[in-house]
From TrEMBL:
It comes from the Bacteria. Keywords: ATP-binding, Cytoplasm, Kinase, Lipid biosynthesis, Lipid metabolism, Magnesium, Nucleotide-binding, Transferase. GO terms for biological process: isopentenyl diphosphate biosynthetic process, mevalonate pathway. It comes from Candidatus Kaiserbacteria bacterium RIFCSPHIGHO2_02_FULL_59_21. InterPro entries: GHMP_kinase_C_sf, GHMP_kinase_N_dom, Mev_gal_kin, Ribosomal_Su5_D2-typ_SF, Ribsml_uS5_D2-typ_fold_subgr. One of its GO terms (molecular function) is mevalonate kinase activity. Pathway: Isoprenoid biosynthesis; isopentenyl diphosphate biosynthesis via mevalonate pathway; isopentenyl diphosphate from (R)-mevalonate: step 1/3. Residues 60-106 form the GHMP kinase N-terminal domain. One of its GO terms (cellular component) is cytosol. This is GHMP kinase N-terminal domain-containing protein. SUPFAM superfamilies: GHMP Kinase, C-terminal domain (SSF55060), Ribosomal protein S5 domain 2-like (SSF54211).
Length: 277
């Protein structure tokens, strides 16, 4: 028997880091995602894993599969994983892998998938898991998930820009934030307020500009990404990182809105690949 699963990545519109400290956030699923297929084959006597793409993440998939086998030992067959979500760049790739593998191996068990997520990514906010599991736009606040409807116009001309691999892993940045909470509350409040403004229907571009300023103040938008977003703002648009960002190196994926052609031109001038939502 063959089972298949598709799980989307995520795009955070508002709430990065704020969600860690109880502020609300808004996220939507991406069209990019993780496809998994499991072909049962008792003759294999094991779970064989085939990764079609970036094999450096194969050990992580093996850890997910091992966690699944703790729940169901007789997972004999071939697991094939194919992902077009940029790995490690703020679109929830690790969480999407967990959900996609758990679903195809164990079925639609949210509790089990969440347990694996919390085991492999301790201290996470739950925000990524919530939107990826839901597969629909959500408002997330203190662990509570509320499905929401967003205007189709909100992201019609939006562009994703790949600024490169972050210089620090997400767990390191999260620990850094937790250790500075008293000093960053004002910026976290601004990010939470951006979520409320977006829910009230304020223009996304205006909200995004203030959100970006707060992320800069948090110290997770490296210079090259700041320069990119400044150029987009000078052209009448707006942009923000959609993941943990970084202190050095790339900032992962930036979401930009405005004149699509102009945004792509600005990104191309910096040799940064772009993607449609």
């Amino acid at each position: 028997m063959t089972r298949e699963s598709f799980v989307p990545g995520k795009i955070i519109l508002a709430g990065e880091y704020g969600a860690l400290f109880g502020r609300a956030g808004i996220a939507v699923p991406s069209r990019l995602g993780v496809c998994t297929t499991f072909d049962e084959d008792t003759a294999l006597w094991r779970t064989e894993i085939l990764w079609e793409g970036n094999e450096q993440w194969l050990p992580y998939v093996e850890r997910i599969a091992a966690a699944c086998k703790e729940k169901k030992a007789d997972l004999l067959g071939r697991l094939t994983v194919n992902s077009d979500v940029p790995i490690g760049k703020g679109m929830g790739s690790s969480t999407a892998l967990i959900v996609a593998v758990a679903r195809v191996l164990l079925g639609d068990s949210r509790e089990t998938a969440l347990h694996i997520e919390n085991t492999l990514s301790p201290g996470n906010s739950g925000f990524d898991f919530a939107v990826i599991w839901q597969g629909a736009p959500i408002l997330y606040r203190k662990g509570e998930v509320q499905p929401i409807e967003l205007s189709a116009e909100l992201l019609r001309d939006a562009v994703l820009i790949d600024t490169g691999v972050p210089g620090e892993p997400t767990n390191e940045l999260v620990a850094w934030m937790r250790g500075r909470e008293p000093d960053i509350r004002e910026h976290l409040d601004t990010i939470g307020n951006c979520t409320e403004r977006l829910m009230r229907g304020e223009p996304f571009g205006a909200v995004m500009r203030d959100h970006h300023k707060a992320q800069v103040a948090l110290g997770v938008v490296p210079p090259e990404a700041q320069q990119l977003i400044a150029a987009i703002e000078s052209a009448g648009g707006a942009g923000k990182i959609i993941g943990a960002g970084s202190r050095t190196g790339g900032a992962g994926i930036v979401l930009a809105v405005g004149d699509r052609e102009e945004i792509v031109k600005i990104a191309n001038q910096r040799s940064m690949p772009t993607m449609e939502l």
